[in-house]
Amino acid sequence: MENINRRNFITTTATAAAGFSIVPSNVVAGLGHKAPSDKLNIAGVGIGGMGFGNLKQMETENIVALCDVDWAHSKRCFDYFPKAKKYWDWRKMYDEMGKSIDAVLVATADHNHAIVAAHAMTLNKHVFVQKPLTHSVYESRLLTKLAEKYKVATSMGNQGSSEEGVRLIQEWLWNNEIGEVTKVEAFTDRPLWPQGLAAPKTGMWPPETMNWDLFIGPAKFRPYHRMYTPWTFRGWWDFGTGALGDMACHILHPVFMGLKLGYPTRVQGVSTLLMTDSAPDSETVKLIFPERPKERGIKIDLPEVEVTWMDGGMRPMKPSDWPEGRDMNYHGGGVLFHGTKDKLICGCYGRKPWLLSGRVPNVAQSIPRIEISHEQDWIRACKETPENRVETASPFSEAGPFNEMVVMGVLAVRLQDLNKELHWDGLNMQFTNIRDNEEFKFCIDDGLEIIDGHPRFNKVWSEPINARAFAEDLIKHTYREGWSLPDMPS
Prior knowledge:
Blueprint: H1 6-17, E1 41-45, H2 50-56, E2 62-67, H3 75-80, E3 85-87, H4 90-97, E4 103-106, H5 113-122, E5 126-129, H6 137-150, E6 154-156, H7 164-174, E7 181-188, H8 212-216, H9 242-251, H10 253-258, E8 266-271, E9 283-289, E10 305-311, E11 333-339, E12 343-347, E13 354-355, H11 374-382, H12 396-414, E14 422-425, E15 430-431, E16 439-440, E17 443-445, E18 448-451, E19 454-457, E20 460-461, E21 465-466, H13 467-475
Parallel strand pairs: 1-2, 1-4, 2-3, 4-5, 5-6, 7-10
Antiparallel strand pairs: 7-11, 8-9, 8-14, 9-10, 11-12, 12-13, 14-15, 16-21, 17-20, 18-19
Helix pairs in contact: 5-6, 6-12, 9-12
């Protein structure tokens, strides 16, 4: 693995900024390899927010194309990479520049992640996709299988997976430092954007700098309103996954990896008032994972485990021996592993792990460390042959199943009014205890009024919704006409 220290990174970046030429590289893109000194031709899709930060970490390479539906929000990125060709529509970009692009960064709103990344992989392009990896269970499964089929280098943008904390947690757990784990509690202090809202009753004209139809993409069409984007898309079900999808990919990653989790078998969600269009202000999700087989090099059994997620200001109760005055929240959230011998606590991204007993484990390193940025590690993997590739910290072979766990939490919350624990068949991507005739309703508007100083609610409810059909569409979205995914590999 090539080590890139800060000084080398800055030097290389300055050289790249001086100018570059686009060399057709379709012969090697995703199929062969490049020498570490050769530059990849990278395209960015969704570059107004986190995508811009990702691209700045990739500027050792040739940034040859930039695509976004909001050119005002993306102006700073366009200005930063003035030689890159600009696009509104990623499909046109693929048609025109597919043969000269090696790799694609995807940092759109959540609902467009899968369609942009999936089609890139069918063109043999390496892909880096911001978290959450996808908007649905089916999309996660599809990206996992496409990555396996096309043997491209992949990474989800949960950058904490490249940090020290996640590795320490795995090593401590596997070395029996806290015993067997049957319960985990995790939380985030988000959302920071508005949630729990009714959809705007009227639309607005989109600004001239935005292509609203392309933003909608595969989702059901609705009129533009400035409440929906940018950034605030996370709180709207059609476009985002709420605080859970935003932060669980960071916070639950050491849980998924350290406890060797797979598909949950039972799930349940509760929340504050659940609206038709918007994620709730606060929610709690419980996922039950079955006993897993013991693996070589792991000194503990892996019994059935209950994982609880909380957001919107909720967090676990502190154990009786918790250090007085110590905040459980570190960098936006935290995790509490309940072991039979001790308790392990960490912050968001797996940072600063520690044991409640105060003991500091002395465990030999068994997991390689990553000494470069999350983005640069993906670039390194892109330049290696499939046969000799060292996988990234969050390749789709792991990020795909992990993201299924994350979006399963969304399913549990949105189906909470069935008032029962849901049973999940992960292999076949279906709930097994939702009956054909079950129905429920959503709140469309809370109808809050203040009359003579007193609050009054006149809630407006949807018509009865068939639960099975609704669940199936959450698992595998029905895309808008004109938008489609590649077929699921067998």
